[in-house]
Design goal:
Layout lengths: L2 H13 L1 H14 L14 H12 L6 H15 L5 H15 L1 H4 L4 H27 L6 H27 L5
Length: 171
């Protein structure tokens, strides 16, 4: 293998890391754990990942990839086809439009931005679920998912920043 081909292959592999990590988180989201509250409600791992990578590496987390992740998640979870894609594309669009606000600023500002976006998406997903089922869906699981996602966001942001600084430094 020539050095040029090896370099290009290395760049492609490194560039696929955000998609691969987000896909892995989608798989983890649908695996039944039976651990306390996680048996019923799992955090929005995909929302966290899409929000983070759309801000910090937007060229590696493009809208078509976000759409594909949403469709794959809907197939895996058995949810209404396209709902996750719509919500993830909204997260991606908001993060991309407000990218200048978050990049290079204090982490608390990014966390606050995630809180606003995640709350908006949680309310929207609840409204869409109520319309889809033509009845009031219980609100407690949506609130629990929002709060759990909110609490674990710093841990995932820290892990993603380590990944970005150590592996994606040259992409």
């Amino acid at each position: 293998m020539t050095p040029i081909i090896a370099y290009q292959f290395n760049r492609i592999l490194r560039g696929s890391i955000p998609f691969a990590v987000t896909f892995l988180l989608a798989l983890i989201s649908v695996v039944p754990t039976g651990i306390g509250v996680f048996a019923v409600v799992t955090p929005s791992f995909l929302g966290i990942s899409v929000f983070y990578w759309s801000i910090h590496r937007p060229y590696l987390m493009s809208a078509p990839l976000v759409f594909i992740l949403g469709v794959l998640f809907d197939f895996l979870s058995g949810g209404p086809l396209g709902l996750s894609s719509l919500l993830l594309l909204l997260i991606h669009g908001i993060a991309m439009s407000q990218r200048r606000v978050f990049v290079g600023k204090a982490f608390l500002l990014t966390w606050f931005g995630y809180i606003v976006v995640a709350f908006s998406i949680a309310v929207l997903s609840w409204i869409i679920a109520c319309l889809y089922f033509l009845s009031f869906v219980p609100l407690m699981p949506v609130i629990a998912q929002f709060l759990i996602s909110l609490l674990i966001f710093p841990l995932f942001a820290w892990a993603f920043s380590l990944l970005q600084n150590n592996v994606l430094r040259h992409t």
